[in-house]
Amino acid sequence: MSALTSAIADIAKGWKYRNFWQLLAWNDLKQRFRRSWLGVGWIMFAFTLFLGAKLAIFSQISQSDFNVFAVYLTVGFAAWRFILGSVIEGTNTFISAENWIKGESLPMSVHVYRSVCRSSLLALGTLPPVMIACWYFMDSYLMAWVSIPLVFITYLTTAFWVSMVLGSLCARVRDFTHLITTVMQIMFFLTPIIYEIEVLGPTAAKYMAYNPFVYYLDILRIPVLTGTIPWNSWIIVGCFTLAGVIAALSTFAFSRRKIVFWL
Amino acid sequence: MTYIKANNMTLVYPMVGANARGRHKVNVENGAVAQVGGQIIPMGKKGRGVRALNGIDLDLKPGARLGILGGNGSGKSTLLRVLGGMYKPTTGELNVEGRITGLFNLNLGISRESTGYENIILKGLMLGISREKIKEHAAEIAEFSELGEYINMPVHTYSSGMVMRLMFSTATSFKPEILLLDEWIGTGDRNFRAKVDERLNDLLTTALIVVIASHNRNRMAKWANTIIELDAGQGVQKPIEEFTA
């Protein structure tokens, strides 16, 4: 069997372990909030608090109507949290699973599923405040409801390939973990989340075309805000997803049996 | 049918990051060797590797009780993990048929922050057993391990002997077809060691392969029916009759 077909078989086999990695992911979260009174409730509480503070400050420099900006910021920030979470958790996919990788003969993809599941559970915790904000500040559009399931599928696929690529890369060359964490902090400021592109003026706005995160936010934010589908952004996100999946499969095929030696 | 068959198996650990900042250079040019461990060999342009296993042949059928003997760093644990499927042999062949459970060390394959009970659930789910069935096992495991209420406390509150009790009881409760044990299993107190021996004997009657890595030659001489003695990753499997403790 070639390395690629065994990699695909590994991914299929890993899915059969879903009861196992779902519980592991849930335990990871419980562990993170262990001995706190709010427990996993902290996910929602911290997000709401952050959102409130950001809204109070940055609505001052926004040129839009307050209600529109509130939804813009809420949806954008929630999406960013998921993207950021997937990338950061992704860098640790295999490193944090060392005791399972060395102790049990599991399909390697189990650890990728676990990582994606963990980020998704975190994102799920931010969903209620987002839904309340959207419902409170503006009417919903039909197109938003149509595109949201597709956006979620795209985001999950993205989290999966990102975890696979970054997980392997960071297990092999540990410097990448630090580099990526730093780059993501910079990207938060270079991505229109707490401000709108228009605030930047035409020259700076032009460079936004080179920021892939903008397209990932657009596919969620634009339908919610305007009720239209941003086809251009979808095409670009689609291309990224395809390229990402190919990159992930090749990385995984190459590194699957080597990762254990890198830990 | 359950079996393990290895043919001229070699395993080389790559030394990842051997050239990273702050690392001493590992010399291999003068054929430098140590008294312990596998042979350090050059790998790629500047890299280094450790040949932990070198040309291993094994043939185990149901009922086999293999004892792996050897000094520190001779490759005992590596061989166990290769058999367990964690490491793929660098060269040579390995064919294993049967449901494997391995107990390698107290930190592996266990979630230290979770309770004993949660760990039992995890292991059961990993083997694809339903939650109801796992609960029945959990009661039995709690009793056999004598952990009592500790089963509902996080594993990091356990002593190492207690972790061992939990791991051994869990692993054997789910009835593996191949059981791989590192020597620490013998570190339990006398009371539990008797239970361990008894359970290993029970398991063997249900047509199993059990492999134990150990330093204890006398104990292996009594327990095993086949032996491999490793030295710097090399060794030949022999019947117990040819072994002298």
Task: Describe what you observe in this structure.
- The complex is a heterodimer of chains A (263) and B (245).
- Chain A has 263 residues and is mostly helical.
- Chain A has one domain.
- Chain A is 78% helix and 0% strand.
- In chain A, helix 6 packs antiparallel against helix 7.
- Chain A is globular and about 55 Å long.
- Chain B is of the alpha/beta class.
- Chain B has a single domain, classed as Rossmann fold, CATH 3.40.50.
- In chain B, a hairpin with a 3-residue loop joins strand 2 and strand 3.
- Chains A and B meet through helix 2, helix 5 and helix 12 of A and helix 2 of B.
User: What's the rounded overall pLDDT mean of chain A?
Assistant: 92
CATH class designation of chain B: Alpha Beta
Helix content of chain A: over 70%
The SSE string of chain A, one letter per element, is: HHHHHHHHHHHH
Structural class of chain A: mainly alpha
Q: What share of the residues of chain A does DSSP label as strand, in percent?
A: under 5%
How would a textbook summarize the main sheet of chain B?
A: 6 strands, mixed
Please provide the count of β strands of chain A.
Answer: 0
Helix amount of chain B:
25-40%
CATH architecture of chain B: 3-Layer(aba) Sandwich
Shape of chain B: globular
Q: What's the story with the biggest beta sheet of chain A?
A: none
Q: Biggest interface: chains and residue counts?
A: A-B, 24 and 26 residues
Please, how many domains of chain A?
Answer: 1
* Quaternary organisation: heterodimer
Radius of gyration computed on alpha carbons of chain A: 19 Å
Shape of chain A: globular
Straight-line distance between termini of chain B = 32 Å
Task: Provide the fold topology.
The complex is a heterodimer of chains A (263) and B (245).
Chain A: H1 3-16, H2 18-32, H3 41-58, H4 66-91, H5 98-103, H6 109-137, H7 142-172, H8 175-190, H9 202-207, H10 212-226, H11 231-255, H12 259-262
Chain B: E1 3-14, E2 39-43, E3 47-60, E4 65-70, H1 76-84, E5 91-97, E6 100-103, H2 116-126, H3 131-145, H4 160-173, E7 178-181, H5 190-205, E8 209-213, H6 217-223, E9 226-230, E10 237-239
Parallel strand pairs in B: 4-8, 4-9, 6-7, 7-8
Antiparallel strand pairs in B: 1-3, 1-5, 2-3, 9-10
